[in-house]
Amino acid sequence: MNRLAQLLQQHRNQVEQQLDQLISTAGSIEPRLQQTMRHGLLNGGKRLRPALVYLSHQLCTGQLPNELTKRAAVAIECIHSYSLVHDDLPAMDDDDLRRGQPTCHIAFDEASAILAGDALQCLAFEHLSEPINGYPAALQLRMLNTLARASGERGMVAGQAFDLAHVGKPLTLEQLQAMHACKTGALITAAVELGALSAGTAGDDKLPDLRRYGDLIGLAFQIQDDLLDIEGDTATLGKPQGSDAAQNKPTYPALLGLDGARARLQQLHDEAIGILSTYGDDADDLIALTHYIVNRDH
Amino acid sequence: MNRLAQLLQQHRNQVEQQLDQLISTAGSIEPRLQQTMRHGLLNGGKRLRPALVYLSHQLCTGQLPNELTKRAAVAIECIHSYSLVHDDLPAMDDDDLRRGQPTCHIAFDEASAILAGDALQCLAFEHLSEPINGYPAALQLRMLNTLARASGERGMVAGQAFDLAHVGKPLTLEQLQAMHACKTGALITAAVELGALSAGTAGDDKLPDLRRYGDLIGLAFQIQDDLLDIEGDTATLGKPQGSDAAQNKPTYPALLGLDGARARLQQLHDEAIGILSTYGDDADDLIALTHYIVNRDH
């Protein structure tokens, strides 16, 4: 296993342990709600957003994650998970499988899936707003605001709404880009920002660069997703290959051609690496993660 | 119009103006999402929770609401509205009408209703986490945490999940009480707490009393709801009278009898008033609101 794979594994273990604890200690009068939350949360995700939080913090400080970094990593994964649970619902993308497993409304029922998603979103803000000794409340508040802005009606939710409103309709490249900037990009950029914010003053001057980096890899992530849907393998993807075309979804390859999309991906990758390279050794792991994002096979 | 009615009208106008501004200035790439949010948010609600925030602050300070009070009032109404939008969904309570108007998934569509609810929840936390000059960030963070705890898997969402899991099943009085303590009680208590927290140090010593008061009126509110469903008038209620019995929902009158439920309501009212009476003139409006809650006809 190479260094990045090891590191991702470590981060994943840490985040999953925290997520697991968070749900099991939460205590609810309705156990089925917790079971559904658990199903939506602990389903073998790549935990890419938490990794971005960790490695962005590392770039800023050269240090291991602090308590704020860890909270933010857990919170952002709660938001990401809730969005997947809701996106899979029959009224939305109507997906039965996610990472090879039955989706929440299939494994449980539709009402449980809606409520589990609602509770997971709330849990993100609850977890990040718990008082933490030794860190400025103003910083924690700023992190909360960053997460909320990225997740809501100007961010992730808007992107999903736009996507649903345009199924089967042609999009321009600008529209496609604006949609993905909201739908997946906002939360990816927020992950990078949250890592930098958790670094306190060490992150302040790096925020503009890291924000730009986040926007670039958010877009790159989506183009790679589109390419995988054409070139990937159903078993590796954990979802049917070719589903974008089957659902007549607008994609980068459809608008730019396969070679054009590949070239754009490379361009975004190069620009992102260009930004990170100015930060010396502390950026090495984030650089490795950036390579991974554009070369991943699922 | 009596003093309380005037006051409630004033608060309602203020909150609705803020809610209106919040949505119209938010800017989204998908206008339909905002329209659905607006439909769910600005639909003639009584704005009882914001009034509790305002009047609890007034009890603590004798002053007009400050910026924190106003933020909290708007945030809690966003949470309440999102929960109604989701509760009305076909997979949940499947209601076509709310306050005499078509519910969000009827007026728009199911996906829009799910997403509008998601965005309204997020907006509550976004609005309350925006930096406010002149107020301690630690206080704002504590208010956020209070709101999140009341709304999630140990509060409101848990109550709704428990309710759905027990449709048509008999409940004990303890179970019914635990369900309502989560489903409606948690957010009502949070409203009272948020008002006191927004008063800063003036609210600190009053928090335990006000929490207890919130628990009492939360329960009283629910019993009155159950009684109205039996004794109320469909036109005034804005929803079909008798729908609890038709859906075989467990209610206080079903468990305690009509007279028993009325007696319990009176008891809760008296205990709540007993708490408030120790606070002098500044409690007068909250006392009036308490009378209103147990005597309202819709």
From TrEMBL, chains A, B:
Highest taxon, organism lineage: Bacteria
Alphabetical UniProt keywords: Isoprene biosynthesis, Magnesium, Metal-binding, Transferase
GO biological process per UniProt: phospholipid biosynthetic process; terpenoid biosynthetic process
Organism of provenance: Marinobacterium halophilum
Keyword Metal-binding recorded: yes
Co-factor requirement: Mg(2+)
CDD domains: Trans_IPPS_HT
Sequence similarity: Belongs to the FPP/GGPP synthase family.
Identification of the protein by name: Farnesyl-diphosphate synthase
GO molecular function, one term: prenyltransferase activity
SUPFAM superfamilies linked: Terpenoid synthases (SSF48576)
CC per GO annotation: cytoplasm
